[in-house]
Structures are given as structure tokens and as C-alpha cells.
């Protein structure tokens, strides 16, 4: 999502999109996953249904790659993680990396997600 102003933490991204505060640009990208179980892939990750999700199937690290066809400025990234619903599949850390290709990615943000 892109936004001209700082988005408040905890804001509902769908509401912000409806009011024109942000614009969803994920559909302009090519999405890929390091692994997934059948029926738990990119489509479920992106379908706006909180009951469906991506489930990895393989060794760590588990990666979601979002590649835009041309240079794109992303100002806001919204990720929904629900530790209380299923702690075994909720990531404990999320790393956001950017670059011109997969081989020159640099970490710009790191988040801890689990409630301790």
C-alpha cells in the first residue's frame, strides 16, 4: 500500500483504502513463496479473508517475495498476523528487505510479532 502521510499503527488498511488515504498496489507485483502446502499459497495469502492464510511447507527461512515490474515506492506495508488464533504458524520475526533484485536485498526493518 502507498500513502502520502504516516499511517497510524493499528489502522484498518481496508478502511484507509476506502477513504483514499492509501492505495493497494500488491496486484501490480509478482508474488512468490519459498514453499507452501497445497491450498495455502499466494491466493490465500492475498484474498482478504482472515480465515485463509499462507502455510509454509519446508525448512526455514520462510519467504514471501514481492517483485514489482518497475521501480516502485512502497510507503506502507500491512501484514496481518494472529498469534492467538494459531501460535504455531504465526511468525516470531518479520524482516522487510528491499533491492533491485533478489541478490542485493538489504534489510530495512525487523519486527518481532509474538506476544510474550
UniProtKB/TrEMBL annotation:
- Ranges in a coiled coil: none
**Which family, according to the similarity comment?**
Belongs to the APC10 family.
Q: Which PANTHER family match?
A: ANAPHASE-PROMOTING COMPLEX 10, ANAPHASE-PROMOTING COMPLEX SUBUNIT 10
Q: Which SMART domains match?
A: APC10
Q: Does the keyword Cell cycle apply?
A: yes
Q: Keyword check for Cell cycle, yes or no.
A: yes
| Keywords of this entry | Cell cycle, Cell division, Mitosis, Ubl conjugation pathway
Specify the protein name. Anaphase-promoting complex subunit 10
* SUPFAM superfamilies referenced in this protein's UniProt entry, alphabetically: Galactose-binding domain-like (SSF49785)
The record ties this protein, via InterPro entries, to:
APC10/Doc1 (IPR016901), APC_su10/DOC_dom (IPR004939), Galactose-bd-like_sf (IPR008979)
Organism phylogeny: Eukaryota, Metazoa, Chordata, Craniata, Vertebrata
Amino acid at each position: 500500500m502507498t500513502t502520502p502521510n504516516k499511517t497510524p499503527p493499528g489502522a484498518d488498511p481496508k478502511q484507509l483504502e476506502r477513504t483514499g488515504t492509501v492505495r493497494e498496489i500488491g496486484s501490480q507485483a509478482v508474488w512468490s513463496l519459498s514453499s507452501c502446502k497445497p491450498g495455502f499459497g499466494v491466493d490465500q495469502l492475498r484474498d482478504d479473508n482472515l480465515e485463509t492464510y499462507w502455510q509454509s511447507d519446508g525448512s526455514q527461512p520462510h519467504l514471501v517475495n514481492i517483485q514489482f515490474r518497475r521501480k516502485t515506492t512502497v510507503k506502507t506495508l500491512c501484514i496481518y498476523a494472529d498469534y492467538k488464533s494459531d501460535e504455531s504458524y504465526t511468525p516470531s520475526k518479520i524482516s522487510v528487505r528491499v533491492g533491485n533484485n533478489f541478490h542485493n536485498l538489504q534489510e530495512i526493518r525487523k519486527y518481532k510479532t509474538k506476544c510474550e
